[in-house]
Amino acid sequence: MSRSNLDLVNECDGFPYYQVDPDLFAASISTYYELRVQNRDYALGYLLPSVAEVFRGIPHWHIDDDERILTLTEGTDAASRSAAVQTTFLALRTTGHFKVLDKWRDELYPVYGRQKELLFNVERSASPLLGVVTYGVHLTAYVVKDGEMKIWIPRRARTKQTYGGMLDNAVAGGIASGESAFECLVRECGEEASLPEDLVRSRVKTAGCVTYFYIRDERAGGETRLLQPECQYVYDLELTEDVIPKPGDEEVEEFCLWTVDEVKAAMAKGEFKPNCAIVMLDFFIRHGVLTAESEKDYIEIVARVHRRFEFPTL
Amino acid sequence: MSRSNLDLVNECDGFPYYQVDPDLFAASISTYYELRVQNRDYALGYLLPSVAEVFRGIPHWHIDDDERILTLTEGTDAASRSAAVQTTFLALRTTGHFKVLDKWRDELYPVYGRQKELLFNVERSASPLLGVVTYGVHLTAYVVKDGEMKIWIPRRARTKQTYGGMLDNAVAGGIASGESAFECLVRECGEEASLPEDLVRSRVKTAGCVTYFYIRDERAGGETRLLQPECQYVYDLELTEDVIPKPGDEEVEEFCLWTVDEVKAAMAKGEFKPNCAIVMLDFFIRHGVLTAESEKDYIEIVARVHRRFEFPTL
């Protein structure tokens, strides 16, 4: 069945909004636990009760069932909190409590407080368990010839455990703690699309960010229903015809140069990884492919792909 | 005192967010009345109690003080509802109840329901009394020479009653009921900047929309604290050096061609009309002038200028 662009947004930004449906929001919220750190009286993320339950009795953590709050009680600075978090997840990995930890990445993601201070780092594969905001970069590479735009679209390897065989953005990757968005982008452009560093540095355009509140399904691998609020910095790169992106690793099967209509058709068939479809929608809006006249849900789509989170962000 | 870009956003998007501060939101909300129409159980806007009070006893309206809801009870279709609304505001204009009605425009703004159906039209000057979403177009015109961008910035006539002497976007205007965003833009480009229609139609780029929830102050004229949720469709127009925008009416004093740094400096000094500063921020984000590395409040700014409203939009 054909998906509308708003369907694609709903698939990626699935967490309810208070201002649109207070009852649904309240019903959802009441099933989760808030994640906090000691001496900060605000939420950093939401956890499933089944996840929060596992922290009961683990040193460094306190669970308040009445208020539904899980608090990291250990540590007074980023280093000591990070150490406690790492100890916890290394142990939980060993005990096999969570399937998502089977894909341990040995890569740290940052979690920030309201003053934009780093509160702690957490192993990447563990971040959806805590429901904290994570950060990444997505690049759309395109060619304009005789006034017609074509877009480079990679297909993910069918053997990939997460979203195997689905369509992606030209380059995408997570930003590790301490890395800047732009340097992450330059690195990923080399690794994922074999794009020369000097070309990227001189030609790429920073174009904003998309933010959405994703609820993980089976395609993400591991536990489902985990909450994943994400911020993806978006970049555009107009390439000349002689530059051909090439997969730099096993993660991408092939790059295809598609017309806008071909991309739209694949989106409507649900062939894109959900957050990559959102990045394409943002690109289409910024480049006038989608307009107020051509897209019936224009205003809602623009607002939804730039969600304001209840959690602090960088 | 110098304003940060987030200060500029706060000035324009001043209504609280539930998800960030539920208590502040609840305190604000509890002071307003919801606007509804018969047989639609959702809000179309918020009214000040002092405004809602005036509707007490006026035919076609029902005020529920317990639930704090003002309902338009007359009419079963857009035509009959619009007639009732018009009758009401013509009378209130005559009685001199509201200062904002002194600037009667004889121009109708549309109010939509959740199915994007037109519920009624309302005289433009009356729309902030009802607190309904209004729609407009804003154009940023710029020139790129030797790799440096310069932006055409008009200064509003100092004699103008609203935001007199402040800086504006190259072209801006409200979309009347029945008019498309793009046709409105083309018309305003001619009226406000004397830009040739064929140039606009062939060169202008549709680039999204900004949405924000403005609380009117004395600079807007008339009653203060009125609520004004707005959607501005944004457009970019790159001009060659030989095209000079010229004021088409008395509303603009002059157009200046400024460097990005000059524009930023004027923004920091608070010289821009609040919603025009927001449009400039969105332009700067889309064009890579503001980046994740250079703007400390990047993510919040991007989300805030694309607010999702609790009211239906087109």
UniProtKB/TrEMBL annotation, chains A, B:
InterPro entries: DUF4743, NUDIX_hydrolase-like_dom_sf, NUDIX_hydrolase_dom. Pfam families: DUF4743 (PF15916), NUDIX (PF00293). The keyword Transferase applies. It comes from the Eukaryota. Residues 134-280 form the Nudix hydrolase domain. The keyword Transferase applies. One of its GO terms (molecular function) is 8-oxo-dGDP phosphatase activity. Keywords: Kinase, Transferase. PANTHER family: THIAMIN PYROPHOSPHOKINASE, THIAMIN PYROPHOSPHOKINASE 1. This is Thiamine pyrophosphokinase-related protein-like protein. It comes from Lentithecium fluviatile CBS 122367.
